[in-house]
Amino acid sequence: SSGINAEWPLRPGDEDNKKLNDTVDDLQDIIDNLKADVDRLDQTVVDKQNQINDLKDTTSDLEKDLAEAKDEEDKLKDDIAELEKEMDEKQKQLDDAKAENEQLRDEVDNIKIDCDALGQEIEKLNEYIKDLEESLKEEKLANDDLEAENDKIKEENVKLKDQVTDQKDDMDKLADIVADLENDIVEGDKENAELQGDV
Description:
Blueprint: H1 14-96, H2 101-198
Helix pairs in contact: 1-2
């Protein structure tokens, strides 16, 4: 903010006071606008921080879902391994006991159906995990962008606050000038009264 340089007349009149008042009003408007900008940016920082917090919560939920999906996948793989082991055992029993051939074949067929169903479920889970990983990646990118934008707004906020401080300093200088002018006016009025009394 530039300093205020003005040459004030030694004997100010009404028009000079009006100019001073206009200047004071203009500076007050500038200060009010800057304060409004600061308040707005403060609220923007709060809003962006809330968005970041929401994204972090969403990211945590996605990570939790991803971990649960992977646990479910491992469980299904164990189930398949167990079923395959059971199928092998039944096949061996089939070879060893031809009398139970038909019944054991039915059991083997059912196990194969279960294996196929589990295999399809694993494929769906793999797609779901892939989607979750994609979503997690996008959420993290969005979070990084918001944090960068938040830092930028904070820097602008600091600059505006500095401008407001400079404007306040200028207002203090103007207040001193106004006080001096008011004293000059009072002294001028006294001198006029004395001159009129002499007349």
